[in-house]
Automatic annotation (TrEMBL):
The record marks 4 as: Interaction with substrate rRNA. Belongs to the RlmJ family. Keywords: Methyltransferase, RNA-binding, rRNA processing, S-adenosyl-L-methionine, Transferase. It comes from Zhongshania aliphaticivorans. It catalyses: adenosine(2030) in 23S rRNA + S-adenosyl-L-methionine = N(6)-methyladenosine(2030) in 23S rRNA + S-adenosyl-L-homocysteine + H(+). This is Ribosomal RNA large subunit methyltransferase J. The active site is at residue 164. Its EC number is 2.1.1.266. GO terms for biological process: rRNA base methylation. GO terms for cellular component: cytosol. GO terms for molecular function: 23S rRNA (adenine(2030)-N(6))-methyltransferase activity; RNA binding. Gene3D superfamilies: Vaccinia Virus protein VP39 (3.40.50.150).
Length: 279
């Protein structure tokens, strides 16, 4: 929906989980010299300044990336979490009071042979993407679900597809299933990373089961709850579902998730769930 602006939520607990998984998946795919295609179906603006009217309104970053940064001096983080923070800091050079979106993170990591395809319908966010990244990515003011079809399979047969619609429209829950079914048919070996919110609605509660049915033998599903549910639309956590996950991702998240639960949750209701299946 064009009313959604991610700037209100940039750098929150959901971004931390989503971008941690994004970094670890890209690192894995780049272990080989073969080119990687990165496809972002809902790219957003690409970078968010904490002083902006959007981010400053709710300051959700205070309970997300800011908590992690403040804790770095007091404890040694596992290598996967440290890697995520290094990438975030590299993206923020010269813009310390801000947080990168998934396009900025991807383009920080992609090599000369890799390709990035970014989809964003909101005119303001699309313009921000174009100004910041037009030299290094293919930027499309088109629907990411529809655009995905034309890009699969990629020429190199290696890709990370990040799917994270706003879910303000209930149809998005159906759209992600349709998109993943079609994408798996076109390109069964792709790495597909889907983010979704944990909210007290049937569409969210049932999505994990529907996703597992798409890839019952090769998936990773991680949920991070940070507070108690509050109202029908209140997000109390988020989840990532990865089809064809990197083989070491489950072990990496096993190290990291207890720390995210401790630092980003409210202590009373915070918890994480992690399960996976491999062929």
């Amino acid at each position: 929906m064009l009313s959604y602006r991610h700037g209100f939520h940039a750098g929150n607990h959901a971004d931390v989980l989503k971008h941690l998984v994004q970094v670890l998946c890209l690192d894995y795919l780049q272990q080989k010299p073969t080119a990687v295609s990165y496809i972002d179906t809902h790219a957003g603006a690409g970078f968010y300044h904490f002083a902006s009217a959007f981010s400053a309104q709710n300051r959700e970053f205070d309970s997300g990336i800011a908590k992690l940064r403040s804790a770095t001096s007091g404890q040694d983080f596992p290598a996967p979490l440290q890697r995520y923070l290094e990438v975030i800091d590299a993206c923020c050079k010269g813009e310390a009071e801000g947080y990168p979106g998934s396009p900025a993170i991807a383009l920080q990591l992609l090599r000369e042979q890799d390709k990035a395809h970014l989809f964003e319908l909101h005119p303001n966010d699309h313009e921000n993407l174009r100004k910041r990244f037009h030299h290094s990515a293919r930027i499309n003011d088109a629907d990411g679900f529809a655009g995905l079809k034309a890009l699969l399979p990629p020429p190199s047969k290696r890709a990370l597809v990040l799917i994270d619609p706003p879910y303000e429209d209930k149809n998005d829950y159906r759209n992600v299933i349709t998109a993943l079914k079609d994408s798996q048919r076109r390109f069964p070996n792709g790495v597909y990373a889907l983010w979704y919110p944990l909210i007290p609605r049937d569409e969210s509660t049932d999505l994990g089961r529907r996703l597992k049915a798409l890839s019952p033998k090769n998936y990773l599903h991680v949920k991070l709850t940070v507070q108690a549910p509050a109202g029908e639309h209140g997000m109390f956590g988020s989840a990532m579902f990865v089809i064809n996950p990197p083989w070491q991702l489950a072990n990496q998240l096993t190290e990291v998730m207890p720390i995210l639960e401790q630092l980003l949750g409210d202590g009373e209701h915070s918890q994480f769930e992690l399960n996976s299946a491999t062929p």
